[in-house]
Amino acid sequence: MLIPTFDDVLAAHERVRPHVHRTPVLTNGHLDGLSSASLFFKCENFQKVGAFKARGACNAVFSLTDEEAKRGVATHSSGNHGQAIAYAAARRGIAATIVMPETAARPKFDGVRGYGGEVVTCAPGTKAREETVAGVLERTGAAFLHPFDDARVIAGQGTAALELLQDAGPLDAIVAPVGGGGLISGTCLAASGLSPATKVFAAEPEQADDAYRSKRAGHIVEDDAPQTVADGLKASLKPLTFHFVSQHVEAVLPVSEQEIVDAMRLVWERMKIVIEPSSAVAVAAVLKNRELFAGQRVGVILTGGNVDLDRLPWAG
Questions:
Q1: For the whole model, what pTM was predicted?
Q2: Which CATH number fits the domain 54-144, given the four candidates 3.40.50.2000, 3.40.50.1480, 3.40.50.1100, 3.40.50.300?
């Protein structure tokens, strides 16, 4: 198991710089008041493809040798990683095949195809994804880029927290959502190298709380197809990301479906920006655990803004 380092995050930052945005860090007085903390929001909803996943995807795709790249790339994804791989592959001029569950949000299908990626659908669930992508790899010989259990992807995702710490200054804590764990792992790496005193917290839906249970159990506990409005956080940890969650994440903070929806709506109304439910999980965790963060400077990574506007979670 190749565990990435802080130096890998620095190298990734240079590698992805021509291909991604340095997204803004925003503040909001109303949310500061609700949380009794000073919050700094890293707005990856403004990122290429609408999500932080562009960082890890570009680092992985542009790390490939020319020999590896000429056969194209393939992955499985509920949407954001798939869009990001398709985007990165297009930037490099190679083919991309994305295995997606048939239940994925329509804009995410459209996004993959819009960047020139080929979509192969499968049933919901990790097992179905992995079996389907295995068939794609056999058919195409493509390089497989795992959505999160890949040192190159983790190092790329860590560049979001790197920029957050550079732009916001010293932080007492950073809160980011956890699904498969690529972002939270990269966040741990960035904090360890740039601000070792910063504590990293993972936020997770109660209905997909495998990371919370895994950390408590001391081993990976998998959910195959959990049901949550936060569709980007349904994946379970893998060995590489469990290493970071078990050893470097301060705590995993679960939140309810209603808390996710309420936080999402609050950000839309008060910050005037579009975030998806998975992003709102981190906001909900800060608001739910006010006593944990009161009086502190807290970074919150808003992971993406890819929302199906015809299926808003508060629209009845």
A1: 0.94
A2: 3.40.50.1100
